[in-house]
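Course assignment 3, question 2. Fill in each field.
Student: A.L.
Task: Predict the tertiary structure for the chain below.
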Amino acid sequence: MPNDDGCTTPSQLIALHLQQHGWTQRLLALVLGTNEQTVSRIVTGAKPIDAELALTLNVALGIDPDRLLQLQKDYELAKAKIEIRIDPALPMRKAIFAGLPVTEIVKRGWLRGITDVRDPGLNASLCQFFNVASLGEIVSPVHRPKKTDLLGDTTPAQIAWLHRVRQLADEMLVAKYSQASVKAAIQSLTKLLVSPDAARKVPRILSEAGIRFLLVEAIPSTKIDGVCLWLDDKSPVIALSTRFDRIDNFWFVLRHELEHVVQHHGREVAILDMDMEKDRSGLTIADEERTADVAGAEFCVPQVALEKFIARKAPYFAERDILGFANTIGIHPGLVAGQLQRKTGRYDLFRNHLVKIRAIVAPGALVDGWGDVAPLGA
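Answer field:
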């Protein structure tokens, strides 16, 4: 068998074997049972080598079919690198579609007039939605918010949710905000804790306090619970995802975000709160998050009273104990149940008290998601 180390194309390898055998192309054509024109195209490389031809030449000339096919593959790839020009916009499209939940954004109706990801106007609509001049700015780290919580850098999907919140909040009309108004609102909200139905007043109370409040369904996998941000550094916005539709989670997250407002957190960069169901007691988190967590828990159930209740009743909590404690401090038993779950880690207990609340709050609030698209002005 001839040494074919110097061959870089299938045709060179075939010519080498013909020479070794002392065959002409006419003789090879006779052996293969084909015409000379076909053999000429094989020998000159005009006819690509496929699996069938490689096996045929193996029988006729003893050429290793694997070697022949590998040379064909290498030749075609080298030729393509020279002849084919890759669309320079391809890397950018990869970054956009791989990094952003474009399909979800379109499905949720966040882009005006765009109902299909193949729409020619998609790029322009995305730029308009993210308020950038070019698609490159959407995925550029330079244009992403700073680190906002203990989980790490904000993802493109979370940024998209934030843009939707800001887009909707910008069109809301509320009373003038003041530090006194938010504190008065918190006092008013405290009176609503006794009944799930009373939560329907939340949107009105916050609006009268100058706080733009809305419910926006989270994009899957973002783990967003809520956000506090400010428009023009003077108008606070609170958006909740209610991804856990329970009375305890609603009030805890809402009061958590309200504390951000009270403390003027989020004026420069939105405070995005995620995965708040996770026990954060042993984690190192920002002081502003710790402060808001304490306020949220204290609002739901006075913590000193809760600790005393646990000390008296642990490790067994009877139904009548939870109901009696909730009645004594004037709150719904679902709030006690939720705080007990956090304190004890027994999330399998007391679930019958964790009533749903989104449908109660939604009629009076600006809502986007769960099958509905919040209307925007012209």
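Instructor remarks: Residues 65-83 form the longest helix (19 residues). Confidence is low (pLDDT under 50) at residues 141-152.
Grade: pending
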